[in-house]
């Protein structure tokens, strides 16, 4: 009887330990998206301000939580991209990110991101000691987190990474780092399906969380099975958060979509005001640089085309393309280069400069789709040089949250001429 009682007590203690595990919240592949662009109602999800509100509500309810990120939070290494990356890093720090797996985007600047932002990075297969990066992290005294980033994701052409070691070396390191006192072991993983299956065979982890493999947010698989094993991940570009309950025998998860149900956290207003001013300064600097060059504008604008192509011009005037600049004015993004590129003709390609300097090249016009119009007269064989409009032409802009409902078959008849 005493032996049975001890077994029951042990079982109860084990169950209590599981119940004591904090809730887990996952993000990943934010890719510099700090705020919904406003292009579409159905794609209006995510952003720092809504994420901040969500976590603030959790903190107010005294929920014990661990926040893990699967990496690739960094924007491209442009001047504007660096501003956005710094904003996301500040959000991580303010809302107490527990751990992050650095992705290829974080290595795009070598190791400068690690020194600059000093986040709680974990990367078990680092081949050298990277700044502020640990091989594993013990969270809440019971959850040990490991990280794997495939070397193949940093290899470009003949260049081989010196930052990462092999999958075999990773598995050896894990065995050295595991501790019998760990209540739970989690792997943040970014690699191929073959590597994922190889790691999952070893039974070294209680939970493996792979990074989202999708390129765009309108075509992502958030949960899937691979050779009989189930996996789930986090939504792309900060559009949502995956909430995970580790306290049950069977792990449960749900996706929390950051719609306008979550109001913008007003505490970020000053940061976004400053960001907009800095982006405007970058834009005005670009205009000054262009003004110093010879006038190289090669685009003619719709007026040049519709003088002869009148029927086609009337069709265009009735489309939303003709008012694309107005939509930027509505959301106050007329000085944001990342928005201008899809709402004007030939921006940064010897075309649109600003609404004041090149008003004839604002909005989406003929040359966005058909290419630069060469001088020609009626009767010329212009069709031979004109760009053929295909689905890929449209997807230069109609992609992801900018146009999640895009369907070439449905959209094309609206502008066909």
TrEMBL record:
Superkingdom field: Bacteria
Domain Cytochrome c-552/4 per the UniProt entry, residue ranges: 305-371
Matching SUPFAM superfamilies: Metallo-dependent phosphatases, Multiheme cytochromes
InterPro entries according to UniProt: Cyt_c-552/4 (IPR023155), Metallo-depent_PP-like (IPR029052), Multihaem_cyt_sf (IPR036280)
Name this polypeptide is given: Cytochrome c-552/4 domain-containing protein
Organism: SAR324 cluster bacterium
């Amino acid at each position: 009887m005493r032996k049975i009682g001890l077994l029951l007590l042990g079982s109860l203690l084990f169950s209590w330990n599981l119940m004591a595990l904090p809730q887990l919240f996952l993000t990943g592949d934010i890719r510099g998206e700090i705020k919904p662009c406003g292009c579409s109602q159905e794609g209006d999800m995510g952003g720092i301000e809504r994420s901040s509100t969500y976590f603030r509500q959790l903190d107010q309810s005294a929920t014990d939580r661990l926040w893990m990120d699967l990496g690739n939070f960094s924007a491209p290494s442009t001047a504007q991209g660096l501003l956005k990356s710094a904003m996301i890093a500040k959000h991580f720090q303010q809302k107490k990110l527990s751990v992050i797996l650095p992705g290829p985007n974080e290595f795009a600047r070598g190791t400068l991101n690690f020194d600059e932002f000093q986040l709680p990075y974990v990367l078990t297969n680092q081949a050298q000691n990277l700044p502020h990066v640990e091989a594993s992290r013990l969270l809440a005294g019971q959850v040990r987190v490991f990280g794997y980033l495939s070397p193949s994701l940093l290899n470009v052409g003949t260049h081989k990474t010196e930052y990462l070691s092999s999958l075999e070396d990773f598995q050896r390191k894990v065995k050295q780092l595991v501790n019998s006192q760990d209540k739970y072991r989690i792997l943040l993983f970014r690699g191929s399906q073959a590597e994922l299956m190889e790691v999952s065979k070893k039974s070294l982890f209680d939970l493996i969380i792979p990074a989202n493999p999708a390129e765009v947010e309108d075509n992502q698989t958030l949960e899937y099975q691979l050779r009989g094993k189930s996996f789930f991940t986090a939504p792309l570009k900060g559009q949502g958060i995956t909430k995970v309950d580790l306290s049950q025998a069977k792990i449960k998860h749900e996706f929390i979509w950051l719609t306008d149900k979550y109001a913008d956290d007003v505490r970020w207003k000053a940061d976004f005001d400053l960001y907009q001013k800095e982006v405007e300064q970058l834009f005005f600097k670009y205009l000054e640089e262009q003004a110093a060059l010879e006038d190289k504008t090669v685009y003619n604008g719709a007026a040049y085309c519709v003088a002869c192509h009148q029927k086609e011009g009337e069709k265009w005037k009735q489309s939303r393309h003709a008012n694309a600049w107005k939509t930027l004015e509505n959301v106050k993004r007329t000085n944001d280069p990342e928005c201008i590129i899809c709402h004007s003709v030939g921006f940064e390609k010897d075309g649109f400069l600003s609404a004041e300097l090149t008003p004839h090249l604002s909005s989406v016009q003929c040359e966005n789709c058909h290419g630069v119009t060469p001088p020609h007269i009626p009767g010329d064989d212009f069709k031979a040089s004109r760009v053929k409009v295909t689905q890929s032409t449209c997807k230069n802009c109609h992609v992801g949250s900018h146009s999640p409902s895009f369907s070439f078959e449905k959209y094309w008849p609206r502008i066909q001429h």
